[in-house]
Specification:
Strand 3 and strand 4 form a beta hairpin. With 279 residues, this protein is α+β, with helices and mostly antiparallel strands. The strands form three sheets. Strands 2-9-5-4-3 form a five-stranded mixed beta sheet, covered by helices on one side. It has six helices and eleven strands. The chain has two domains: 128 residues, Alpha-Beta Barrel (N-terminal domain of MutM-like DNA repair proteins); 124 residues, Helicase, Ruva Protein, domain 3, CATH 1.10.8.50. The longest helix is centred in the C-terminal third of the chain and has 20 residues. The chain starts with a helix and ends in a 13-residue tail after the last strand. The protein is elongated, with a radius of gyration of 20 Å. It binds zinc ion (ZN). The site of zinc ion has 7 residues, from loops.
Length: 279
């Protein structure tokens, strides 16, 4: 599943080609995505309009059109946004095809159809964005803010990091890597973390996400960028997918546990199980 860095890589790739392009035609596949605007809505607000810029909130990619409408795209589990010189090769599961005025086609392909492709008229803020938390690079994200937010809460830090309503765009792979870098056990209740712990979490988050974006994201399963290239962050993963292998810091075999249905990978020695402070 693409996480924030993968979506950012796609955004940067498309931002080199899409701004200034007009959408001159639109074709839809036979099957709809689970969340997809009706054809009439897409035609009404997108057809004939120019793409001005692309932005990202968490895992949402936003295409801002010249008259103020917004196309909101979420890749779901298996979605891909691909740019081809027309005529594009026939692709299975090509759900939405935007024909652009430079002779290219932007194709949303999604084998599992969990993706979202929604258009909002000018002046309408896409409602899904209301639930998107702080960008990990936001200056509002501070140890004090996190400390106050989590005081007295028992929720495990791993699940907290995965909650896109708090920090946006961190998925399972990066959450495991962040906790390893911050030396925090994934089951630690957030209320037990100190200001220094949160400082390490923020620093690790930013460092890891920045590196992942720089290296083109992580290719797990079938993530590819808009040019169909794979990401190169995968070899940088220190714990994710490495259960049983020696910890790169201390050599202890890495462990795996399941939290909220997702695998957590960690080093039992570098990330010791939390113990309650006295009192
Ligand atoms: Zn270790």
């Amino acid at each position: 599943m693409p996480e924030g860095p993968e979506v950012e890589v796609i955004r940067r790739g498309l931002a080199q080609h899409l701004p200034g392009r007009r959408i001159i035609d639109l074709a839809l596949g036979d099957k709809r995505l689970r969340q997809q605007s009706p054809a009439a809505e897409l035609q009404r607000w997108a057809l004939g309009h120019r793409i001005e810029k692309l932005s990202r909130r968490g895992k949402y990619l936003l295409l801002h059109l010249d008259q103020g409408a917004t196309l909101l795209v979420h890749l779901g589990m298996s979605g891909r946004l691909l740019l081809f010189q027309a005529p594009a090769p026939p692709l299975p599961h090509a759900h939405i095809i935007l024909h652009l005025d430079d002779g290219r086609e932007l194709i949303f392909q999604d084998t599992r159809r969990f993706g979202q492709f929604l258009i909002y008229p000018p002046g309408v803020k896409p409602p899904p964005l209301a639930a998107v938390g702080l960008d990990p690079f936001s200056r509002r994200l501070t140890p004090d803010w996190l400390l106050e937010l989590t005081q007295g809460h028992q929720r495990p830090i791993k699940n907290f990091l995965l909650d896109g309503r708090i920090m946006a765009g961190i998925g399972n792979i990066y959450a495991c890597e962040i906790l390893f870098a911050a030396r925090i056990h994934p089951q630690t209740p957030v209320g037990l973390l100190s200001r220094e712990d949160w400082q390490r979490v923020i620093k690790a988050t930013r460092r890891i996400l920045r590196a992942a974006i720089r290296l083109g994201g992580t290719t797990i399963a079938d993530f590819k960028n808009s040019q169909g290239e794979i990401g190169n962050f995968h070899p940088q993963l220190k714990v994710y997918g490495h259960a049983g292998e020696p910890c790169p810091i201390c050599g202890t075999p890495l462990a795996r546990l399941v939290q909220a249905g997702r695998s957590s990978f960690f080093c039992p020695r570098c990330q010791p199980r939390p113990h309650k402070p006295q009192g």
